[in-house]
Amino acid sequence: MTELELCCDGPRDAEWTLVLAHGAGQGMGSKFMEYFAKGLAGQGLRSVRFEFPYMRETGRDGKRRPPNREPVLRAAWQQAVAQVVHDGVSRDRLIIGGKSLGGRIASLVADDEKPARLICLGYPFHPPGKPERLRTAHLEEIRTPTLICQGARDSFGNEEDVSSYRLSTQIRFCWLPDGDHGFKPRKASGLTREHNWDLALASILEFIRG
Q1: Per-block average pLDDT, block size 10, for the chain (210 residues)?
Q2: In a domain? residue 197
């Protein structure tokens, strides 16, 4: 596999390095990914982003593609970890995660790759409108300390849905009030997307440093 292009922010000698993968529909340059990568870098962490093969191809020719099959996505995550570790980051100072799809695939490889932490930003517990199609089997036994930041009304798994799931005791949640899959609340809530993004960022920092 060709070496992944890594987008890095923050000090190279940071105490913690966080590797983030994007969601299914937008790449590592989306406003969401930029906010969290640069926000964490601004707090002294090293933030590293990469793209899955299908998104790299879309970036080259502009043609939208569906995500690669799961084995390809897993392999990309494993390669990203290998490159960062080869660059001198120890696994006990490594955190992996990402937005939706990126976070889900990170959660599938976490126990094997052995990072210190896992962070999922909007976990896709099930497809919208199909709550019976759960993607939680591995989360019942996951051993990696995990933070899931989730919109309270996320159509991929809202607070009421998720409260009924059997999940590992290693998982903790940050619920973003009235947030959707991108953490955006409705206008009637009186809140803003930026408020929820700030809340999620603060929760991530507390999880890492706590």
Answers
A1: 89 97 96 98 98 95 94 98 97 98 98 98 97 97 98 98 97 98 97 98 96
A2: yes
Residue 49 has which token pair? 């982003």
For residue 53, the enclosing domain spans 7-209
Cβ contacts of residue 155 below 8 Å, gap of 6+? 128, 129, 180, 181
| Count of domains observed in the chain | 1
**Cβ atoms of residues 34 and 109 within 8 Å:** no
CB 165 within 8 A of CB 125: yes
Kindly give, in sequence order, each residue whose CB lies less than 8 Å from that of residue 24, ignoring residues fewer than 6 positions away.
67, 100, 101
